[in-house]
Amino acid sequence: MSTLTFRRHAAAEVPDLLDALCDVYADAYGHVPGEDSTVKTEAFRDRADAALDASNYELVTAWDSGGIVGFVFGYSLRPERGWWNGLNPEPAPGFIDETGDRTVVLAEIEVRSAWQGRGVGHRLHDEFLGGRGEERATLASNPAAAETHALYQGWGWRRVGVVPGRPGSYYTEYVRFVLPLRPGTAIA
């Protein structure tokens, strides 16, 4: 494997990288027969662009000599976001309390298909989370993505439940995972 470099980017830098991020995203998912990949990529572009206004947004990219091979981005979870609305099973008291700097959302992590299975995603994950100040991280996943869930759990994430998708969401429900970023952080 060639030597990768990792770069951190603030929200102001991302518009210049958005086309490249969309290319990585499209490549990471590949072509699915019967699916218009431009629809999925444009939906990603909309999510990625909207995330730039989030509190404490950060992007981490992985580069080789040919350009960006993967990326991860996220932001601090705002109390009014409703991230935990409808969480089933019902969590312990205080679990869903957000302060605006308690939890970081790992919103996207994508790696070009040629680089998948080579540890790039895990390195991006660790690079991103290692630079965060929140006490815990959360992410949402497709409920049918059992292999992805196993990967996350292997990286230390804990499945905490399922929430219903919002109107217009890609899935009707999402699995929520949590990872403590500080020793002693209670998960449930």
Features of the shown structure:
Aminopeptidase; 7-stranded mixed β-sheet; 25% helix; 188 residues
Note down, in words, how this protein is organized.
The protein is an alpha+beta fold and about 190 residues long. The chain has a single domain, classed as Gcn5-related N-acetyltransferase (GNAT) (Aminopeptidase). About 25% of the residues lie in helices and about 30% in strands. The protein is built from 4 helices and 7 strands; from the N terminus they run βααβββαβαββ. The protein has helices at about 20-30, 35-50, 120-130, 145-155; strands spanning about 5-10, 60-65, 65-75, 105-110, 135-140, 160-165, 175-180. It has a 7-stranded mixed sheet with strand order 1-2-3-4-5-7-6. The protein is globular, with a radius of gyration of 16 Å. The model has no long low-confidence stretch (mean pLDDT about 90).
Instruction: Sketch the major β-sheet.
Output: 7 strands, mixed
Q: Which fold does the CATH topology refer to?
A: Aminopeptidase
Task: Give the helix proportion (percent range).
Answer: 25-40%
Q: What's the total count of β strands?
A: 7
How much strand? 25-35%
Order of helices and strands: EHHEEEHEHEE
State the CATH architecture. Answer: 3-Layer(aba) Sandwich
Instruction: Give Rg in angstroms.
Output: 16 Å
Helical region count?
4
**Separation of termini?**
39 Å
Tell me the structural class.
alpha+beta
**Anisotropy-based shape:** globular
Q: Strand order of the main beta sheet, please? A: 1-2-3-4-5-7-6
Mean pLDDT, to the nearest integer, reads 92
Instruction: List the uncertain runs.
Output: none
CATH homologous superfamily caption? Gcn5-related N-acetyltransferase (GNAT)
CATH top-level class: Alpha Beta
Protein name: Ribosomal protein S18 acetylase RimI-like enzyme
Keywords: Ribonucleoprotein, Ribosomal protein
Pfam family, one: Acetyltransf_1
GO cellular component, one term: ribosome
